[in-house]
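Readers outside the structure-tokenisation community will struggle with the description of the input data as it stands. What matters is that the chain and its backbone geometry are given together, residue for residue. For illustration, here is how one protein appears when written out as sequence plus structure tokens:

…
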Amino acid sequence: MKEELFKGLTEEQIAKAKACKNQDDLLAMAKEEGIELTDEQIEEVSGGGCFSSFKCPICGSKDYRKLPIYQVSGCSTYKCNQCGHEWSL
């Protein structure tokens, strides 16, 4: 991973992020640590854009957008452009 993607993380969090083998591992680690990851950080671990990997949990569509909503939990909120379902990661 590019070192500039680790700004704001502790040494322990950096080590955990580097140990992640895939996007699911990174998302689980971030949730556990209370870290909101940028799309760029997720893409770096997943090896291809996060938008090509994520899909709507209801209809399975990859046609969705990130909403400009900040939740107290630090999660990002997404909305499916096909079925309208909203979910947070």
Residues 54-89 form one domain. The first strand starts at residue 64 and ends at 70. The two ends are 21 Å apart (CA to CA).
